[in-house]
Amino acid sequence: MAMLKLTQEGxxxxxxxxxxxLKRKKQCRNTSEKEFIHKRVSEIKDILAQSITWPMxxxxxxxxxxxxxxxxxxxxxRERYTxxxxxxxxxxxxxxxxxVQSPIAKAAIxxxxxxxxxxxxxxxxxxxxxxxxxxxx
Length: 137
Known about the structure:
Blueprint: E1 4-6, H1 8-27, H2 31-49, E2 51-53, E3 59-60, E4 69-74, E5 80-86, E6 97-99, H3 103-108, E7 116-119, E8 127-136
Parallel strand pairs: 1-2, 5-6
Antiparallel strand pairs: 3-8, 4-5, 4-8, 7-8
Pfam families: GreA_GreB
GO molecular function, one term: RNA polymerase binding
Protein name: Transcription elongation factor GreA/GreB C-terminal domain-containing protein
């Protein structure tokens, strides 16, 4: 199985959740809650065992890949967006962290600076973006 790449914050959050659940597991008496906690603890341990943590240092990248922070510009409205492409466990669009499985990330992965890509939209016109900057770890 391929290694998962997690940000340092994502790794910390999973480790904190694991510690919390292990404490909670000892305290709870409800069987259904224990089952949920047991499954989640197992899931987190698997994720951490299969993952590596990205370093904090970023430098200009040649192409977009999981872990990249990419700045794109909408070719029609000229609006700019900066996203970090992360594992689905860490995705948080409010923090500009999008899943590798999101339409934008799927379309951008493998592209280089100044490349243009299109994202298909179910209803409405497709969105076209140009990659302005790529930072990789």
